[in-house]
């Protein structure tokens, strides 16, 4: 680790320490810059230590990548935001994939492969002139929801992000629990269907392989081929639209029996996954976030049934399952919150 980087980490620890003790000073009143990097969209925001977003900007990642480059676009917008606020206390980065043990770079990011291996913490510190920290986006969202969202007030929070893939994070006493290798909370890669379909990780029957948006689309295509009477196979219903989780949800609301069965199956698998987390971590709150929760009312009954069937009865009555409260801002708020939690 370079001398400048060590100095940056010491500065960040000092800032966080003085802010908690209530010291006044130029840095203590400046907001934090949160950057949530993603393959579809990238968001930047100025966030106060209370979790309040005071300025927010969004970038269409694909367009930025084709023009000046995503990091260059982030540098321009982030510098403008920092200038408007008279500088920033620190910079937090939420990264779209597993991160290296030093939490400075992505191990792999299929959606932003050009960022693989880049020291993004060093880039942020050099670009914005402030100390920086980074973690994966699921951990950042978990921290945001635990501190400022649906999990606020709970000592132990397990966060599930249900989207194209499935990820998660664990927050204990306001801090992320990362495990020995920084990979704790990968709830999408627990086995819930041992002889189920192959997962992108190489295993079989992972929660992600049977209950993610990608898995729902794949399963819908299989069912449409076997059940031509279903809306999932009906050209008039689909109107040229690809089979996606959102389209399956639409078919459920239209009363299609095949789609209803599929969505209930998804709820059952998620319920088993949550029960496993409850039995392992004894949380007070489990928070569900991500795009699939926009149709949560369709799978919550099956989820709750499986959770009740598989969670330890001594633990279950005190566990609250809640939908995420921060919406699309969870990533940038969580990115900023990484700065608060840094040591």
What does this protein structure show overall?
The protein is α/β, with parallel strands linked by helices. The protein folds into 2 domains: 3-144 and 330-341, Nucleotidyltransferase, domain 5 (2-Layer Sandwich); 152-324, Nucleotidyltransferase, domain 5 (2-Layer Sandwich). The protein is built from 12 helices and 10 strands. Helix 5 crosses helix 12 (330-341) and helix 9 (245-253) packs across helix 10.
List strands and helices in order, with pairings.
Elements: H1 3-21, E1 32-36, E2 41-47, E3 53-60, H2 61-66, H3 70-84, E4 91-95, H4 120-128, E5 132-136, H5 137-148, E6 156-162, E7 166-172, E8 175-176, H6 207-211, H7 213-226, H8 235-238, H9 245-253, H10 257-281, E9 285-289, H11 296-310, E10 320-323, H12 330-341
Parallel strand pairs: 1-4, 4-5, 6-9, 9-10
Antiparallel strand pairs: 1-2, 2-3, 6-7, 7-8
CATH class of the largest domain: Alpha Beta
Biggest sheet descriptor:
5 strands, mixed
DSSP strand (E) fraction? 15-25%
Write the element-wise H/E pattern from the N-terminal end onward: HEEEHHEHEHEEEHHHHHEHEH
Supply Rg. Answer: 21 Å
Summarize the structure.
The protein has helices at 3-21, 61-66, 70-84, 120-128, 137-148, 207-211, 213-226, 235-238, 245-253, 257-281, 296-310, 330-341; strands spanning 32-36, 41-47, 53-60, 91-95, 132-136, 156-162, 166-172, 175-176, 285-289, 320-323.
Features of this protein?
343 residues; alpha/beta; Nucleotidyltransferase, domain 5; five-stranded mixed beta sheet; disordered N terminus
């Amino acid at each position: 680790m370079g001398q400048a980087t060590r100095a940056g980490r010491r500065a960040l620890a000092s800032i966080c320490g003085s802010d908690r003790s209530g010291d006044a000073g130029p840095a203590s009143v400046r907001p934090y810059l949160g950057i949530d990097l993603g393959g579809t969209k990238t968001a930047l925001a100025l966030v106060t230590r209370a979790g309040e977003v005071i300025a927010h900007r969004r970038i269409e990642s694909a367009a930025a990548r084709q023009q000046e480059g995503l990091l260059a676009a982030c540098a321009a917008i982030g510098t403008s935001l920092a200038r408007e606020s008279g500088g920033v206390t620190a910079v937090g980065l939420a990264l779209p994939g597993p991160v290296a043990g030093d939490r400075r770079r992505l191990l792999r990011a299929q959606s932003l492969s050009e960022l693989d291996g880049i020291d993004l913490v060093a880039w942020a510190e050099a670009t914005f002139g402030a100390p920086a920290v980074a973690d994966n986006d699921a951990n950042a969202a978990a921290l945001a929801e635990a501190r400022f969202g649906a999990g606020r007030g709970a000592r132990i929070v397990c966060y599930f992000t249900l989207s194209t893939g499935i990820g998660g994070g664990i927050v204990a006493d306001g801090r992320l629990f990362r495990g020995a290798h920084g990979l704790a909370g990968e709830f999408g890669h627990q086995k819930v269907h041992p002889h189920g379909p192959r997962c992108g990780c190489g295993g079989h029957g992972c929660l992600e392989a049977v209950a993610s948006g990608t898995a729902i689309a794949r399963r819908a295509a299989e069912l449409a081929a076997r059940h031509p009477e279903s809306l999932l196979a009906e050209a008039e219903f689909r109107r040229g639209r690809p089979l996606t989780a959102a389209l399956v949800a639409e078919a459920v609301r239209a009363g299609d029996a095949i789609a209803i069965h599929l969505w209930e199956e998804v709820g059952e698998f998620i319920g088993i996954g949550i029960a496993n987390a409850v039995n392992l971590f004894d949380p007070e709150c489990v928070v569900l976030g991500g795009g699939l929760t926009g149709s949560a009312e369709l799978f919550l009954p099956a989820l709750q049934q499986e959770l009740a069937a598989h969670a330890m009865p001594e633990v279950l009555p005190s566990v609250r399952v809640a939908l995420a409260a921060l919406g699309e801002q969870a990533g940038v708020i969580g990115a900023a919150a990484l700065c608060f939690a840094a040591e």
